[in-house]
Structures are given as C-alpha cells and as structure tokens.
Amino acid sequence: MASRIEQIIEEIEEYVDSCKFQPLSTTKIVVNKEELEELLRELRLKTPDEIKRYQKIISNKDAILADAQAKADGIVANAEARAKELVSQHEVMQQAYAQANETINKANAEAQQILDSAQQDANNIRYSAITYTDDMLANMEAIMGNTISESQERYNAFFGSLQDAYNIVRQNRQELAPQAARAEESPAAATSYDDYDEDVNLDEED
Length: 206
Known about the structure:
Strand content: under 5%
Largest sheet: 2 strands, antiparallel
Distance between the termini: 113 Å
Number of helices: 3
C-alpha cells in the first residue's frame, strides 16, 4: 500500500503534466500557485509523520526482545520447577539430577533460540524501515533534481530562441540602413531637378 507521501508526489506529477503551456512556448507552463503550494504544504507536513511511523516500527524491536525474554524466562522457570519436582520424588538421586540438568539445558537452548530469532526479526524490521525511508527520500531527491534540470534546460532553450530573434532583427536593420540613407537623400535631389526645369522654361519665354 502506497504511503501518503508517494500519493502526493504522484499528484504533483499529474498536476504538472496537466498544466497548459504558456502562449508561444513549448517549455513553460501556467500553474495555479495556490493549488501547487497546497500540495507542497501537505508534503512537508506528511514527511515528519511518515518518518515517525518507521521510527515507531524500529522502536518495537525492544518490545519484541522483551517478549522473547519473558518467554525464555518462563521456560527456564518451568524447567527448574520440573527439576525440583523430580528431585523431590522417591527416585534415585543421580537419575533425578541428570534429568533435571538435561531439562534445564534444553530449556536454555530453546530460550537462546527464541532470543536469536527475535533479534533477527527485530533487525530485519529495522533494516526494512530504514531502506524504505531511504528509497522514499531518494525518489523525492530524483524528482526535485529532474525538475531543476528540466527548468534549466527550458530556460536555456528560451534564451537561445530570444537571442536568435534579436540577431535576426539586428541583421535586418543593418541591411536596411543603406536604403534608408538613400531615401533621405532623394527628396533634396528631386527638388534641385525641378528648379532646374523651371529655370529653363523661363529662359525660353524670354
């Protein structure tokens, strides 16, 4: 069953994928600031709770060991009681002591086995909790790293497109500069030509 943190991360990814691109852009998107901040706020609130939950699992190690110790003590106590009962009976003392020692040895071996098994179970639980928490944090780290990388790539692409457009505009202006200069000179040249024609006509009337 997925944790709430994993669900929130999936919701953030789905939300980002559903956002529309900005006009004239294939890299930048338009997001609802409040909605995204709400998801991030819940993620920050849930992260400590999730870690506490796994710390609680780890703390159960002591309870597991205490329960195993209690069971082992009970077995030893029963064995000792049985040994005393055997000794108190009208049997040969040597046989009674031998049976008592054998019972106690078996009880001690069984108790040690229970303790070893409980220790192994507690270590497995602790390792699983730590591994899961580390995997969760690694997933969050990867998502954040990819987001930063993608944002940088989108910014570089946008800046490159803007630089290309700027270069084209500047080149076009440079190409138009000689034509603009000739356009400024042509009205004066036309005036001089007209004045010349007028003078010639006046001379012909004289």
